[in-house]
């Protein structure tokens, strides 16, 4: 089993980064508020984003470079635009995932405030990244994703058996501004923000250093397994929200600790009180993995993009950006500690509105002369990608016009 899992890597890191707020928070809330009515949105956005996420391991495994090194060949302005966008969003994203993680820890252990748990979690992540870096991430994530997948599937099966109403699979499209805003936020981080493809290209290059014998085909398989896991778990969390909370008169709280209590209670209602600790730990490890991977990836991309923009090496760049991210995250946290729902919505909407930019950038690079012909997308994949770009732009325009 261990030797088999060693063949996997960046795909599970992708799943670890993706299966977090988008699943535990947004998907369960989608099920609680709309029943099974937004499954169409989950499947559609996963289909739309698939080729652009795949471009990360495709380019990295075929060239030995990460996407940022590829973007540098398109022009310095591309890197500057990416740098500014990342700087504008990374603090909000990190704060959002850390607040949810701290809320679950506080709910599970029953001691300490959100401030205390945020400090503990951030400190633990900081030392793990300083000591273990990629190799430790690569080892941990496989087991975390497997445990959460199995526990969620079991919870859904038992919740279905305990559900005594007729299950409706009728799909719905929100019509009011609040519903549309939630839909865009839901799709913004489902299965993850599109810039994670850049993170995955970096993780793929790191994996190549550990296992040079892996082929491009193996990286595709690794990615597809991780991607499929995010889709299955997304449907699982929607199902839990729908089976346990839809039409119950209850709604999820915007407070981190209260939300975590509701989330764990949703599992225990299906599995029984004996499962509280198991599910709580599974949820905590999932959100911890997201917090850890985002805390690792953002400093990496900021260091790499800085070095490419200024064409010089910054040996302590990773540590510098890691400290900047931690300080910025804690600063935002102290101001928005009671506004978890608002913070997550802002982060997810920003991710959705920037998705067309990242999609067009990756498509441009992968179809350009800078990408070896052998790994360029096929004609079918190109058409598929162009349709995806059009739909991402159309959804963004729809959302912006709905605000007016």
Question: What's the layout of helices and strands?
Answer:
Elements: H1 2-5, H2 10-18, H3 21-34, H4 39-63, H5 67-74, H6 76-109, H7 114-131, H8 133-162, H9 177-188, H10 196-210, H11 216-244, H12 256-271, H13 276-310, H14 317-336, H15 340-366, H16 379-403
Please tag this protein with its features:
404 residues; 0% strand; mainly alpha; globular; 16 helices; 79% helix; Amino acid/polyamine transporter I
Can you walk me through this structure?
The chain has helices at about 1-5, 10-20, 20-35, 40-65, 65-75, 75-110, 115-130, 135-160, 175-190, 195-210, 215-245, 255-270, 275-310, 315-335, 340-365, 380-404. The protein is mainly α and about 400 residues long. Helix 4 (about 40-65) runs antiparallel to helix 11 (about 215-245), helix 8 packs across helix 12 (about 255-270) and helix 9 (about 175-190) runs antiparallel to helix 16 (about 380-404). The longest helix is centred in the last third of the chain and has 35 residues, at about 275-310. The chain is globular.
Largest sheet: none
- CATH topology name: Amino acid/polyamine transporter I
Principal-axes geometry comes out as globular
CATH H-tier superfamily:
Amino acid/polyamine transporter I
Low-pLDDT stretches are none
Sum this structure up briefly.
With 404 residues, this protein is an all-alpha fold. Helices cover 79% and strands 0% of the residues.
């Amino acid at each position: 089993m261990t030797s088999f899992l060693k063949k996997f890597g960046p795909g599970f890191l992708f799943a670890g980064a993706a299966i977090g707020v988008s699943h535990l928070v947004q998907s369960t809330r989608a099920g609680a508020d709309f029943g099974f009515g937004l499954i169409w949105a989950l499947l559609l956005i996963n289909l739309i984003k698939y080729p652009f996420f795949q471009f990360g391991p495709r380019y990295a495994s075929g060239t030995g470079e990460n996407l940022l090194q590829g973007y540098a060949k398109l022009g310095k302005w591309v890197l500057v635009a990416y740098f500014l966008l990342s700087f504008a969003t990374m603090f909000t994203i990190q704060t959002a995932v850390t607040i949810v993680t701290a809320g679950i820890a506080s709910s599970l252990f029953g001691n300490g405030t959100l401030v205390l748990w945020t400090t503990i979690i951030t400190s633990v992540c900081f030392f793990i990244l300083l000591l273990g870096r990629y190799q430790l991430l690569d080892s941990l994530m496989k087991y975390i994703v497997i445990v959460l997948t199995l526990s969620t599937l079991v919870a859904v099966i038992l919740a279905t058996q305990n559900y005594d109403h007729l299950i409706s699979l009728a799909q719905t499209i929100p019509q009011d501004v609040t519903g549309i805003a939630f839909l865009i936020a839901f799709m913004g981080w489902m299965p993850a923000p599109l810039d994670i493809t850049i993170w995955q290209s970096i993780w793929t290059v790191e994996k190549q250093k550990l296992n040079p014998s892996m082929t491009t085909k193996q990286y595709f398989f690794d990615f597809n397994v991780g991607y499929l896991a995010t889709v299955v778990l997304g449907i699982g969390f929607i199902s839990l929200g729908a089976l346990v909370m839809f039409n119950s008169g209850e709604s999820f709280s915007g407070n981190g600790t209260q939300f975590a209590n509701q989330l764990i209670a949703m599992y225990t209602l299906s599995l029984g009180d004996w499962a509280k600790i198991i599910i709580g730990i599974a949820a905590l490890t999932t959100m911890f993995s997201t917090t850890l991977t985002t805390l690792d990836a953002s400093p990496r991309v900021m260091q790499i993009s800085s070095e490419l923009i200024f064409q010089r090496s910054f040996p302590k760049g990773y540590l510098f950006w890691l400290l900047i991210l931690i300080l910025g995250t804690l600063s935002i946290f102290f101001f928005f500690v009671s506004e978890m729902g608002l913070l997550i919505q802002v982060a997810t909407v920003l991710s959705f509105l920037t998705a067309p930019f990242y999609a067009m950038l990756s498509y441009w690079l992968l179809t350009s002369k800078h990408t070896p012909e052998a790994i360029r997308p096929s004609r079918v994949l190109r058409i598929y990608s162009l349709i995806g770009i059009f739909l991402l732009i159309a959804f963004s325009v729809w959302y912006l016009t709905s605000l007016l």
